[in-house]
Amino acid sequence: MDFNWLTTIIFLPALGALLIAFMPRLSSRGIRWLAAVFTFIPLVLSIYLFTIFDRSAGMAGVMQFEESVSWIPAINANYHLGVDGLSLPLMILMAFLGFLVVLISWKIDLRPREYFAWLLLLETSILGVFCSLDLLLFFLFWEIEVIPMYFLISIWGTGRKEYSAIKYVIYTLFGSAVMLAGILSLYFTTGSLSMVEIAQGGLGMIQTAMPAAAIFFLLLVGFAVKLPVFPLHSWLPDAHTDAPTAVSVVLAGALLKMGGYGMIRVCVSIFPGVAQDYALPLIILAVISVLYGAAVTLRQTDLKRLIAYSSISHMGYVLLGIFALGQVSLTGAALQMFSHGIITGLLFAMAGLVMHNAGERDLRKLGGLARQMPIIVVVFSIAGVASLGLPTTSGFIAEFLVFVGSFTSGAPGIQVATILGVLGIVITAGYILWMLQRVFYGEPLKKFDKVKDASILERVYMFAFVAVIMLVGIYPAILTDVIKMGVAPVMGLLGG
Amino acid sequence: MFSETVFTPLFVPELTLLVTAVVVILLDLVLKNKWWLAVVSIAGIVVSAGFAVAMWGGDSASIFFGMMAVDNFAIFFKLLFLVIAALVILASTDYVSKLKRFQGEYYALVLISALGMMLMAATTELISIYIALELTSISLYILVGFLKDPKSTEAALKYLLLGAVASAVLLFGMALIFGFTGQTQLGEIAAAIQSMSLSGVMASPGLIAGMVLIIAGFGFKIAAVPFHMWVPDVYEGAPTPITAYLSVASKAAGFAIILRVFISAFGLPHWLSLDWGMVFAILAAVGMTVGNIIALTQTNIKRMLGYSSIAQAGYLMVGLATVGFVSPVISGSSAFAGQSGLLFFLASYTLTNLGAFTAIIAISGKVDSDLIADYAGMGKRAPLLALALSLCLISLIGMPPAAGFMAKFYIFSGAVQQGLLWLVIIAVINSVISAYYYLRVVKVMWTGKPASETKVPSSIALRVALGLSCLGVLVMGIVPGFVMKLAEMAAKMFVS
After folding, report:
1. Which is deepest, A63, A301, A356, B435, by most CB within 10 Å?
2. Which residues 281-340 of B are in CB contact (within 8 Å) with A?
3. Domain ranges of chain A
4. Residue A98 binned pLDDT confidence (cut-offs 50, 70, 90)
């Protein structure tokens, strides 16, 4: 058991990135295969970790596969990794998407060497965020992620790509700058950078007069930009729309989850009392995100922009589940993060395929593609109905748990908020079905006569996505058993 | 032959450098192959550094009747200046080989100004401080005007005139302090101030006025707003290696002397240190904001880095403010957080800026332009140079995995500890602003259309200098423990 599983998983993609960037005389075919290998191994390893993860009740809240090495003694920072029920599903999510986006990017011809190097570096940084238990290490990975994103959007993007890339960077850096102030305050009020230690020590470790609520909100802003929470969301539609398909998949699939994960792991676990005090305004923001996001989605005419806005709405459920502060609602929120990652990842992949094959992403000019794309239409529809929460898909279980858990959690005003939130589902059904109808049904258009359906490779990754959506939808315990282990200690802190 | 008080082994590093400078001038007369001048200079630096390293960690001592200190603090800076001088000489070889005359003088002046800076870091007496400062400044005035073209001459004249005014202001401040306390030795000034009653100190404005004038005089050296007017013009006009030299060495020397004077002479009573701490806090806030905002609109990369260095001086002054705010009752390593943070930041900033300027020398020398627009497509024409410059710019923003991130984390963590959270928040938001103009250069290099397809070659000396700087930046960004330890040791060992 002394094998450093997590280090291996996190840094294999980075190693691949270095090889791709600096190995001389590499054909673009070789680059793709290298990228595939260096993302496939982490996926296999993380699934293996999932199978040997100790699910016994006694291990609830205990970090597993821990690694800890002194890193910077001068400031008491450690290279401390570990996963529990909260982070393990997200780690697998990223490893899964990390491999699939390499397949999705198979046709990239423009500067493939740099492209795949950045893509793999991005995977390393996100995996690092989910596995770090030291605040400085966490922040380090959190910040590194910005650089590959910047390059990926501004070089391989479409439309106003440079504007979107810098907007993304400025928003993220603003959030993380404030978060850094929060981390520094936390460090000096507790003298520790270990998330586990601070959470266990509770607020008793906070010695100075610095109010805990101030630190809580400094940290929260950083996560809220990422999630994103209304009114800090405006980077998201631009970044998603102009990013290349694979990057949109990672962005929606795993990057946004860093925000939700951070909220549970840092904000709620370290400041349970503050979280309870300020739950109501945050729940209200969640409902606004859900309804506002859904309403804006309804009037989008750009395929990718539509899916992007729907993410704001779906991330509102995560925020709702987190700050309802109930066991079931938190489990739901964690599951929703995983489920949304897969579903929206698939939606973006499908949107990318439609764009690539039909050469059009304006909903007003699309139509009747069902005849040319019999496979894509089925998979796109599965992703769509999963997104609106149809039973047997993971979307249903996740949203159901969020609503049930929130409604019964007893937080102030939560019942009204939950009912308002459920309305979001109705709007979701509206825009998803309308989108499918406008893209695939209606009169077949002559200009699309030559359009092709998915290739073999594309069918492979489509199948992988659909399989996971169905698996979690039909047998959710496979994930909820694990998530429960991570939520239990948080509930303990909340006194529930 | 010499008595102990005139010749002391503790002065050998400085003597070595002086001898090397003289030898270089003499060799210039007889040697045909001027390459050897650089080799001899660097050899002298290495020997001098060897002597300095041998003294590290030894007992602190005072030499020349209390005029100079030999302590870890001084040795830390001596090594820093030696490293800078060596890298600057490496980066200069291309430049100098184009000069028709005075090649030996160029290297000798670099060595002598480094000698002056080494003295600045060690002197503990007002008159010798002034002499060391002038030794440094006069060598630099000549170096700035070395090209003898109109721009370079204008820069040198501007630097000389403003520098002379600053020196006069400094001298006036010193005179006031001398008049007030009757002492020129820093430790004795402190003793004189502490022996006075509060009303005695308040009765005359001499002390405060003297301190303010001294801050103004040194503020010129470190390019603190509002004493920064010379920076952009001088940076633009000077030979680029000298710009690099000014931007790091001159600044580091300024901070070294400020730390020594203010801690040794004005460190106590606490209300006095709070006073100057507040002055530095305000100068820091103004400096970084002004520097960053003006840098946003620059089109010439040397001017941009000039304003950026003003902003960086602002971040560095956060460390000075921290030193002023440290309460005398605190003990342990947190009592030195301000100093050690500042030293670490200086080391990181030095390597980063030298790296950036070396890349600029390599690129601008070939495209014959300092305009940011002409860096378009460098990612294609000179991938390694572009990568190195990108790394350095990312480090200047303060993003991982580069040294700038750790430096900011370290220096800001000290400030938060002393209750300067407001200043840290201003600083981190400034980092976000700065990301915009640093990334603009990165963007132009990687996404811009190259003006021609020809590769941009660079000489071996430049590549070595750049490689060393970038290696240092990465090492200090990922495993900063060793340098932090050195900075902490240097901050603690301090002779007044």
Report:
1. B435
2. 333, 340
3. 278-496
4. very high
